[in-house]
UniProtKB/TrEMBL annotation:
This is Carbonic anhydrase. It catalyses: hydrogencarbonate + H(+) = CO2 + H2O. PANTHER family: BETA CARBONIC ANHYDRASE 6, MITOCHONDRIAL, CARBONIC ANHYDRASE. It comes from Punica granatum. Transmembrane segments: none annotated.
């Protein structure tokens, strides 16, 4: 049995939305189907994806049936207009089924799957036209560089929707200078600025950043740690924080460095000539952001390029600071 069946009006909504793109989409769809589904054709030939044959379903244990029923009920419980009567009505209308599963009782993906199904039902299907357009082309307004920390996802904190922000996340939200060579961050920057022509770059730092704490605590001896080799990109920010906040304890120094490192990353953006060129032309604006995850506040500022000063190099200023609480 297929994991999902979408019928009735759900399918008709998708069909109507897809009609406008049909001609252009044909080639892409053919290309995809020609390649086939790699999950359905693994080298071993033993992986069969998420589908089950009827005989397999007949062998479902009572425990599995109860579990699937619970998953389906949970999905509809998440609906805003849930009620017992509406539950049954909605089941008939949308004909949504969760897949039969095997494996451990406590599947780490149970909750994740429900969230995905909820996203599909409440966002993707309801805004089908928008998502079909996004499937063709992306034109994000923002490039976002944020920390990899699990607590600071920009899509959750400032609500970026799919298609709004090309995002790269790394330890301590650092931008290495171009002379340090290629990195996943510089690759994402190149794609965002040169290909997608984003108009805004936002570097988001945050409080309680373990990456910054590691940077502030590390000694200068050669380390083989991947973390150490990465966070050394923030060394200039560390030195400034140590200098300015020398009289403060390590926690306060880290807080200082968390913001200093954002501006250091913004400065490093100018070591990429195609970024400086667009900023000078007024085609690209750079911003800093700082999320305090203890008090849930957000500080935003514009990182303004004053120009190249003879004998002083580039000069910057911070403008339009705002504090959201
Ligand atoms: Zn962090």
């Amino acid at each position: 049995m297929a994991t999902w069946r979408i019928s009735c009006q759900a399918r008709s909504v998708l069909s109507a939305a897809a009609a406008g793109f049909r001609a252009g989409a044909t080639r892409t769809r053919r290309a995809s189907s020609a390649l086939g589904d790699p999950l359905q054709h693994s080298a071993s030939g033993s992986f069969t994806g998420v589908s089950r044959s009827p005989s397999e379903n007949e062998r479902l244990t009572e425990k599995e049936r109860l579990r699937n029923d619970r998953l389906t009920t949970s999905l509809f419980t998440n609906s805003r207009d849930f009620s017992t009567a509406k539950h049954e009505e909605r089941r008939k209308t949308c004909d949504v089924e969760t897949m039969a599963e095997s494996g451990a009782d406590e599947d780490v993906f149970d909750e994740i799957k429900l969230r995905f199904l909820s996203f599909k039902k409440n966002k993707f299907l309801k805004e089908a036209q928008h998502y079909q357009t996004l499937a063709k082309i992306q034109s994000p307004k923002f490039m976002v560089i944020a920390c990899a920390d699990s607590r600071v996802c920009p899509s959750n904190i400032v609500g970026f929707e799919p298609g709004e922000a090309l995002t790269v996340r790394n330890v301590a939200n650092l931008v290495p200078p171009s002379e340090f060579g290629p990195s996943e961050t510089s690759a994402a920057l190149e794609f965002a600025v040169k290909s997608l022509k984003v108009k805004n770059i936002l570097v988001i730092g945050h409080s309680n950043c373990a990456g910054i704490e590691a940077l502030m605590s590390m000694n200068d001896t050669e380390s083989r740690s991947y973390v150490d080799k990465w966070i050394i990109n923030g060394k200039a920010a560390k030195l400034r924080a140590k200098s300015v906040a020398a009289h403060l304890d390590l926690d306060q120094q880290c807080k200082h460095c968390e913001k200093e490192s954002i501006n250091e990353s913004l400065k490093n953006l100018f070591t990429y000539p195609w970024i400086e060129e667009r900023v000078v032309k007024g085609e690209l604006v750079l911003y800093g952001g700082y999320y305090d995850l203890v008090n849930c506040t957000f500080e935003k500022w514009t990182f303004y390029f004053e120009g190249r000063m003879p004998g002083e190099g580039r000069k910057f200023s911070i403008r339009d600071r705002s504090f959201w609480r």
